[in-house]
Amino acid sequence: LTSTVCCQSSDKSMDAMLIAAGSLTGLLVGLTGVGGGALMTPLLLLVFGVAPMVAVGTDLWFAALTKIFATRIHHGHGLIEWQVVKRLWLGSLTTSALTLVWIKLYPVDETAVMLLKTAIAGTVLVTALGMLFQKSLHSLGRKLRTTDSEHFKAVQAPLTVLAGAVLGLLVTLTSVGAGALGAVFLAYLYPLRLTPPRLIATDIVHAIPLAIFAGLGHLLIGNVDFGLLGNLLLGSIPAVIVGAMLSARLPHALLRGTLALVLLSIAIKLWWSVGTNT
């Protein structure tokens, strides 16, 4: 049934529901930097019945191409902190490469599908909780940055590389985490330097090469559905441009809090679906 649904989506030149899903996700990516994987991958699994590895591989390209258009807007505003981005890349691209080698050597078969779905559900759950507690983590980071500045700055760079490594592993396996968890890590590690618009822009720019790098691996393995991807991009590209243009004018805390609650409910639903199928 799963493969049938996936193939049907490939045969349709235009699918209104897929375009609508792409539009919603693209708008959220532009507004908050979150949603490319945390929202789209569960939607593909729960609503459209796409096979897990195909959902991961297709979503990686969807997230990368969608965020490229948002980045053009943010870059024009001079919001990207390139030093932070390079530190994240050092960890994330290295770990992604190692994870792709592992996937190639030990491909996900039918017996591992439930494990993969569980990993996706768990990552979405952690992402939602991280977003809910992002303000507290930001306050903790600000306190440490101001009261123990010398020590905090000494570990800031290596912890950023480590955060990138965690993101590289999670994104390559599940396509989830590059935007949401990345933003949580950055809010703690750079509480003074990264204002909300700068945090969103920096987080998005880091996520693009990571998603492309991991997506290339999944493409070579055969996990990308181009018909599905095309429909999603038809909705997401115009929506992400609108979201990016509005992002500096809207209340980020309210937006991210609402999205976190939505992701929490999705994670519970995905976890429940895994349990009922085992």
Describe this structure in words.
The protein has helices at 2-11, 16-32, 40-46, 52-76, 82-105, 113-132, 134-147, 149-174, 180-189, 196-221, 226-246, 252-277. By secondary structure, it is an all-alpha fold. The protein is globular, with a radius of gyration of 18 Å. It starts with a helix and ends with a helix. The model is unreliable at 1-9 (pLDDT under 50). It contains 12 helices and no strands.
What about the largest sheet?
none
Secondary-structure element series? HHHHHHHHHHHH
Rg (CA only): 18 Å
Share of helix among residues?
A: over 70%
Which helices and strands, and how do they pair?
Blueprint: H1 2-11, H2 16-32, H3 40-46, H4 52-76, H5 82-105, H6 113-132, H7 134-147, H8 149-174, H9 180-189, H10 196-221, H11 226-246, H12 252-277
Helix pairs in contact: 2-11, 3-4, 4-10, 4-11, 5-8, 5-10, 6-9, 6-12, 7-8, 7-9, 8-9, 9-10
